[in-house]
Design a protein that fits this description.
The structure holds 2 protein chains of 2 kinds. Chain A is mainly alpha-helical. In chain A, about 75% of the residues lie in helices and about 0% in strands. In chain A, helix 4 packs parallel to helix 6, helix 8 crosses helix 9 (about 195-205) and helix 9 packs across helix 11.
Chain lengths: ~350, ~250
């Protein structure tokens, strides 16, 4: 699967040297997302939610997948971003873009500070500290009722039109398009980052931090940088969520939120960029369909899928594409030989 | 003569009651070829870890080009020209051999922080990496994922990575460890071709390698320098023989 010449080509330029198949592969998910807007009007808020969670899962992929930072604290940043955007809309300005930038900036600072405090640890210690980060945030949000509304949630958010023109309407047209654009921007940023020399050094740190120190890599600083970026992305997803629903509840800061986004990413596949897409879509669609059969059934199905994925597909559901391609090549190869 | 590139004075380290380095002194001139030998547990790898900064000494100084480095982090020492290889392969096993070296070069050239812009230098890194693999004789496997490389080639890659840092001082921690004797000639050749101006400290159990390569040998026993001298002297030193035959030395 990991073909070194592929990564080299990508190192030369963003789209340079890509096969038509690869280009089509990149165009497909975005074409689907745009098509969805026109054909599935009744499901736009469902689609918006999926887009938000894709971005959230992507942020986790950056830390967990690429840099090997095993964290269960991603909800802290998602939740913080949501509350920051909500608070901003009530107390400062209803402008969603300003609020969004405010949330990203503030969450990045939270990521920087919490990362600086805990990134010198590794393994289980680090994992526990990330859990602690979420728990502290949750409890703070629960107690600080004047800022967060406590367990009633943050109410009274005012969300103005984007560029003073596009209102967030009841059917969620604006929220969908806005979220999709934000996702696309982050996707391009992340794509460039993971293929850049910086991203390659993260690959190295994930595989062998000691080797990287021996070649002169400031491992702690690199991890802090990517942790901050990952936090900013998660905060951005949280802000989208706040703006799209005009409500922030305590659940955004729960451990379960961290757990769900991890399940999505593992389902879809880490370090594949589109793994977050596949994972979030499959998770929500399975949840939506099976919950109609029974409200408890969907968890059973998702759990079963997760077990099957972890056992049989090392790279998540994204591996199915590779397996299908190899089978196809084997079949066509055989057919064309004689 | 000129001053030493690497100068170690009074270097000491203990883990509790266990003394692993005791008052070690060492000077490496540019172009030096010094062998460090000693029985198992003598503190050879500990000494390398102290020099490179993976361990902090309890006492003593280490100077690189006249600058004290004993308080510096490992990565800063690397940028000052101190490189090492590892006794146990420490490689990026999911990457190709070429990428292992290219990532090193990016770090050396200090553009590994570039996160957004694809730098055309990355291609230069890959080209230089390939040239370095060719140089050391494993250019044919540049595309192969490291985990699929034969052990001996992984050992050579360790050296190629260290050389890619363009070090002034190179610490070779048992470069031929675990390599079958039928292949040691490859390492002889590689060691002979190392750039002349680099100061090199080599740890090796294979006496053939040491006596062929080193101009001076330092014998380490229980964290102390037992004796030092030219290979011919060391070979006939009764103390050294006693250590290697397992008798106690007082």
């Amino acid at each position: 699967m990991t073909n070194p010449s592929e990564t080299q080509k990508a190192g030369g330029g963003l789209l340079a040297g890509m096969s038509p198949w690869a280009l089509a592969g990149h165009a497909l998910p975005w074409a689907i997302a745009i098509g969805f807007f026109f054909i599935a009007e009744g499901y736009l808020s469902f689609g918006t939610q999926i887009i938000i969670w894709i971005l959230f899962a992507l942020s986790l992929d950056l830390a967990l997948g690429y840099a090997g930072i095993v964290t269960l604290g991603q909800a802290a940043f998602f939740g913080f971003g949501a509350y920051a955007a909500g608070w901003f809309s009530i107390h400062v300005s209803p402008d969603p873009i300003l609020g969004h930038l405010f949330a990203i900036g503030l969450t990045a600072i939270v990521g920087l500070i919490s990362g600086a405090l805990i990134l010198h640890t590794t393994g289980v210690t680090f994992l526990m500290l990330t859990l602690a980060t979420v728990l502290i945030m949750f409890e703070y949000a629960n107690q600080a009722k004047e800022i967060t509304g406590g367990d009633d949630g943050l109410q009274g958010m005012k969300v103005g039109p984007i560029f003073g023109k596009y209102e967030f309407n009841l059917f969620g047209h604006t929220a969908y398009v806005y979220s999709l654009i934000v996702l696309f921007i982050w996707f391009v940023i992340m794509w460039r980052v993971v293929k850049s020399p910086f991203g390659r050094s993260l690959d190295g740190i994930r595989q062998n931090a000691r080797r990287m120190r021996a070649i002169g890599t400031p491992v702690w600083w690199r991890l802090l940088a990517v942790y901050t970026l990952s936090a900013a992305m998660a905060g951005s997803a949280g802000a989208l969520s706040a703006h799209a629903t005009r409500f922030v509840g305590l659940s955004v800061l729960s451990l379960l939120t961290s757990g769900i986004v991890t399940v999505m990413l593992i389902l879809g596949g880490t370090r594949r960029l589109y793994g977050a897409f596949v994972g979030a879509i499959v998770y929500f669609v399975v949840q939506d369909y099976t919950a109609k059969i029974s409200p408890y059934f969907w968890e059973f199905i998702v759990g079963g899928m997760l077990i099957a994925t972890v056992l049989f597909l090392e790279g998540g559901l994204m591996d199915l594409g590779g397996i299908a391609r190899r089978q196809w090549e084997r079949l066509t190869g055989k057919a064309s030989k004689p | 003569m000129s001053s030493p590139v690497l100068s170690v004075r009074g270097l000491s380290k203990s883990f509790g009651a266990l003394v692993v380095a005791q008052n070690i002194e060492l000077d490496l001139m540019a172009g030096a070829r010094v062998g460090l030998i000693g029985p198992n547990g003598a503190g050879k790898t500990t000494f390398v870890n102290l020099l490179t900064g993976f361990l902090r000494p309890d006492a003593g100084t280490i100077q690189l080009d006249g600058i004290a480095i004993e308080g510096m982090r490992p990565e800063d020492r690397v940028h000052r020209g101190l490189a090492r290889t590892h006794q146990i392969n420490t490689l990026l096993v999911e990457e190709s051999a070429r990428d292992n070296v290219a990532i090193t070069i990016a770090e050396r050239e200090k553009f590994a922080w570039r996160a957004i812009r694809y730098s055309p230098q990355w291609q230069q890194c890959l080209d230089e990496a390939q040239a370095r693999l060719d140089e050391i004789g494993i250019g044919d496997v540049g595309d192969r994922q490291v985990r699929h490389l034969p052990y001996g080639k992984q050992r050579l890659l360790e050296i190629a990575i260290a050389l890619a840092l363009k070090p002034r001082v190179l610490l070779l921690d048992e470069p031929a460890a675990g390599v079958p004797s039928s292949e040691t000639h490859v390492f002889h050749k590689v060691l002979d071709r190392l750039p002349a101006e680099i100061a090199i400290l080599i740890i090796e159990h294979d006496m053939d390698v040491i006596f062929r390569f080193a101009k001076e040998i330092v014998v380490l026993v229980q964290g102390r320098v037992l004796t030092r001298g030219e290979p011919a002297q060391i070979a006939v030193d009764p103390q050294v023989r006693a250590v290697y035959l397992g008798r106690t030395v007082v």
